[in-house]
Every structure is written in C-alpha cells, then in structure tokens.
Amino acid sequence: MRRLTPEQLNARNKRSIAIAGVLVAFVVLVFAVTVLNLKRNIDARKDAIAAGQPVGYAQ
Amino acid sequence: MWCETDRGKRPRAPMRPGFRPYRPRPGPRVKPEGDGDRMRLMARTESAPAISTAQPGDFFQLLKPRVMSLVIFTAVTGLVVAGGDIDWISATIAILCIAVGAGAAGALNMALEGETDALMRRTRGRPVAAGRVNKNDAMTFGVVLSIFSVMLLGMTTNWLAGGLLLLTIVYYAGFYTLLLKRRTPQNIVIGGAAGAFPPVIGWAAATGHAPWQAWLLFLIIFLWTPPHSWALALYSAGDYAKAGIPMMPVARGARSTRLQILLYTLVFVPMAIAPGLTGLGGPIYLGVSILGGLGFLGLAIRLWRSRAGDQPDKAEAVGREAALYDVRAEAKPARNLFAFSILYLTALFAALLVERLTTLTGP
Known about the structure:
heterodimer; B: Tetracycline Repressor, domain 2; 69% helix
C-alpha cells in the first residue's frame, strides 16, 4: 500500500472537508428549490380554484 | 534540458507577416528543440504525483473569481432591471447558479488551455498551468459544475435561463477556447459574446423572457469587450506571440489595433447611451453614460494617436512577471483605457441598478 506524505494527507483532508461542505450546501439548495416549487404549485392551484377553473383532481 | 540560460536565447515567436498560430495536435508529444517553457511543463506533468496536493483554494481559483464577480454584478443588474415577480430566494439561487456556471466555463477554459497558459506571464500562475491541479481534475470539476448549475437554474427559475446558461458555457469553453482563440484575430470580438450573456440570463431568470432591452445590455458588453481586451493586449502582446495566440496586436500590429479600438469605441459609446434614450435607464444612467462615454472616446483617441504597443511591453523587456498597470510610458494610454473601460462598464450597470432599486424602494 502506498504511504502518503503529510502534505498529500493534509491536502486530501482539506479537499474532503470542502467537498462535504459543498454537498451539504447543494442538498440544502435542492430542498429549498423543492419547497419553493411546491409552494408555487399550491398557490397556483388555489388561484385556479378561486377562478373556477378545473384543477384536474379532487378539490 | 531546460535551463535558465535558455530563456534569453530562445528566438521570439514569429510576428506578422507570416504569423503562424500554435495549435496543439493529438498524439504523442514531441519535445520541440529549445522550447524551454513547454518542456518544463511537460516534465512537471510527467513527474506529477498520483495523489494530488491541490488545495480547495486551487479549485476556487479555477472558477476565475475576478471574472465571476463581474458576471454576478451584470447578472444581478439584468435580474433586478427586468422587474419580474421572482422571490428573493429564487433570485439568490439564480445568481449563484449563473456565477457557478460562469466559473465552470472558466475551469474548462483553464483545463483546455493549461499548456498555453504556462507560456504567458499573466497566466502561468493558474492552477493547471502551474501544475497544482491535474488537467483531468479541472475538466471533471468544470463539467460537474456546469451540469449542476444549469439543472438547478432550470428547476429554480425556468428553462430559458437554464438554456442560456448552457449556451454560455458551451460558447466559451467549446466555441471560443477550442475553435476561435487560436484561429482568428477576431477571437475576442466573437468570443466576447460569452461574457455578454449574464444580464440576459438574469433577465430571463426573473421574467421567463429575453426581450430587446435584455439584448441591449448584451450588446453593451459585447461591444465593450474588443476595446477593453485589445487595450490590455497592446502592452502584453509579447506573451500572446510566445503562446501563439493571434491577438490583434500580434497578428495585425499595434497601429491597426489602435485604429480598431477607436472604431469599436465609436460604435460602443452610442450603444452604451442607448438605454438612457429608450426608457431602460433614467436620468442618472443618461448622465453617467454620456459623461463616461466622452471620457472613453477621449482616451481611445489619445490611444489612437499614441505609439502604445510599438515597443515590447515593459514586463517582457525587463524579464519579470507581467503587471496590469506598471507599463512603459508609451503604453500608458493603453493602460489608461483598459482601466477606464472597467470603471465605465461598472458605472453603467451600477447606474441602472441604483435607478431600479430606487424605484422599487421609493414611495
């Protein structure tokens, strides 16, 4: 097995932490976008019902 | 082997006439005789450790943060001026996606241009050129960020904005970097479109449309790019010649470049004033664009009448790292126009932004 130098280990640890941070941020972003899209669609449905338009499924 | 003494002896790359741009060829690499910098880069690539020592900061540098800041600024302006009903969370995510998409294009550019960047003083400190980041790692980084930024922008706002961001990335990394840059002195003119897209993407993200007002902002940046880039190229032409990039001063000479800068300025300044006359900008914008435009024109005329670029740039003459602002006395008109062009473009978009924000927060 290849032994890493302290410099390589240090750099790899830093990269791993950075990747973890970016992944967490990405998960939060996707969650926020999903919630936003849900809210938009619920609002659009409410508007459609208020305007007497068919919404395509049980009201 | 490359040694320090080779640097002084290496013949200059051929200038016009008969300038032959360097084009990398696929297949096994052959060490050219006496091409010290290229050999040094190759040696570094061959002896690179299998385990990378690249830091997260090196990957951040791949995103070209300085370019990204201008992209963010112009995209925010497009998004705010558009006046759509986008909520602030979506707007923030949209701007983040545009910034990351632009950064991804920069990473792809650096991955593809590592060898050329290593030959130029201005760019040889970049992560791939300096050997800190592997070319394939940079390429993967750019592709992954491109996919995620386009997808997230499309899901958050609309697919017109996502499509325009994808177009920008492909245009810059594919069309400009791979095809245009080494083939024509008009590279920066056509390639400048890539830098002009962000306000249109911002506008599309806010409204789902890209009307003519958005394309007016596009045209301002598009026409601003040649005078801006050529002013810089006038006092770093030696680097471009060494790297085999046919920038205008290398391929057509300094005199022709100074004239073309003036001609582009004559088209650019009226275009910069146009938003003030079409209702897109208000009195503040009109004032800034006219006053700044006159300054821009004055500096372009002074540059046209100067001898900037006729002599090798100072950094090349004294054999040190290139500096953006420390140049020969004859090249100062070029430096002044380069610096003022950044100020003028920033002022134009800031004026639009301030006027729009004042309207939104006003009574």
